[in-house]
Amino acid sequence: MIRAYKFLMRPTVGQTIALGEILRDHCSLYNGALQEHRDAYRHVSKTSVKYGQQSAQLKEIRAFDPERHGRWSFSSQQATLRRLDKAFTAFFRRVKSGDTPGYPRFRGVNWFDTVDFPKDGDGCGWDATPHDPVTRVRLQGVGHVKVHQHRPVVGKVRTVSVKREGAKWFVVLTAEQDQPEPLPKTGSVVGIDLGIANFLAESNGGFVPNPRHGRRNADRLEAAQQALATFGRVRRDKRTANHRRAVEKVATLHGKVRRQRLDHFHKTALALVREHDLIAHENLTIRSMVKSAAPKPDPERPGSFLPNGAAAKTGLNRSISDAGWGVFLTILTSKAESAGREVIAGDPRNTSRRCPECGHTAKENRPTQAKFHCVACGHTAHADTVGATNVLRAGLVRLYADQA
C-alpha cells in the first residue's frame, strides 16, 4: 500500500530563495506549455499537442536557458508537463460527458505551489539516517534542506514533492509499505449521519459535535481580508512590506483553520476505526449539495426574478464547506483500509424520513430538524440517530448484495 507523509522543512535564507525560484521557473514552464497548446489549436488547424512532444523539447529549453531551467531536475520538469497533460485529459473528459469544461488556465507565481519529483534519487533524495538526529532532503539546485521529521517513515520512499503553504515549506513523501496488521475484531458495526448541527450522529445514539472552525475564525479572517483588500488596490509595483504582511496574515489564518479541521477529522476517524468493524455512511454528492440556488424568473414581469432563498442557501453551503465532509470521508476510508476495517456507502434517500421500527416513510415523520416522530407507529427519536440507523441498514443491504 502507498502511504503519504508530510513534514515541515526548515530551509536557510539562501535555500528559501532557491525554493521560490524553483516554483517560479516551473510555473513559467507550465504556462509556456499551456500557451503552446493554445497556439497549436488556434493557428495550426486545431492541432492538439501531446505530452511526449513537449517533453522532447525540454533538452532544447534547458540548453537555451541554463540559468533558469537547466539547473533544475529534468524529471521534475517532466512532472510539471505531465500535470498539464492531466489537466487537458480531464478537460476533454468533461467536454465529452457534458459537464462544465473548465479549460486549463495560466498559473500566477503565487498560485503555483508544488513541484513533484517522480522518483526518489532522481533530482532529489530523502536522507533519514538512523544515527543522525537531523533529517534532510536533497533537492537539485537547492541543496540539503533540514526537515522536521515528527514521525518515522515506514517503507521505501517512492516520490518526493515540495509544497509551499503561506510562508512555510513542506516536503511530501509517498512510501510503499506492506499492508499493516489489522486491528482485532470488535464485533461492532455502526452507521453515521453527517450533519451541520452535529458533525455526525451514530446509529448507537452517540454524537460528535460540530466544531465549526471556519465560523469561529470568521471575524478575524474577515478583518484580515479587508486589510488585504485595502492594500490590493495599490498598483503591484508600489506595494509595500505592509501588503506582504497582510498576505501572510490571511494565509496564516486559513492555514490555522485547515489544520484544526484536519486534526478533528483524524481524531474522529481514528475513534470510529478503533471501535467498529464496519462503518456505513451516506453516499453524498457534496458538489451538487453546495451549488448556488437557481434563479426563479417572474412569469408576470419579464426580466424580474422571484425570491429563491439564495441567502439561506449561501449560508447552508458555507456550513457544509466548513464541515468538510468529503475530506473526512477520505481520511476515514484511508484509516479503515490500514486497520482492516470496512467502510461502505449507503443510499442516502429518505434516511431521515423512514421509520426504523415500521418502515413508514413520510415527510411528516420529521416535524423539526432534530425530532423524529413516526405518524404511523408513534416511534420517537432524534432525527439524526434515525438517519444513522437507516444508513447502517442500507450499507448492510449493499454489503450482503455484493457478497451474494
Kindly, what is the distance between the CA atoms of the first and last residues, rounded to a whole number of angstroms?
Answer: 27 Å
Major sheet details? 7 strands, antiparallel
Overall geometric form = globular
Beta-strand segment tally: 16
Helix and strand content put the structural class at alpha+beta
Give the neighbour order of strands across the main sheet: 2-6-7-1-5-4-3
Residues in β-strands, percent = 15-25%
Number of helical segments with 4 or more residues: 12
Report the uncertain regions. Answer: none
Rounded to an integer in angstroms, the radius of gyration calculated over CA atoms is 26 Å
Number of domains: 2
Helix-strand string: EHHHHHEEEEEEEEEHHHEHEEHHEEEH
Helix content: 40-55%
| Mean pLDDT across residues | 89
Write the layout of secondary structure elements.
Elements: E1 2-10, H1 13-43, H2 51-56, H3 58-64, H4 66-70, H5 74-97, E2 114-117, E3 124-127, E4 135-139, E5 143-148, E6 156-165, E7 168-176, E8 189-194, E9 198-202, E10 207-209, H6 213-216, H7 218-232, H8 241-275, E11 278-282, H9 286-289, E12 296-297, E13 305-306, H10 310-323, H11 325-339, E14 342-346, E15 371-373, E16 380-382, H12 383-403
Parallel strand pairs: 8-11, 11-14
Antiparallel strand pairs: 1-5, 1-7, 2-6, 3-4, 4-5, 6-7, 8-9, 9-10, 12-13, 15-16
Helix pairs in contact: 1-5, 7-8, 8-11
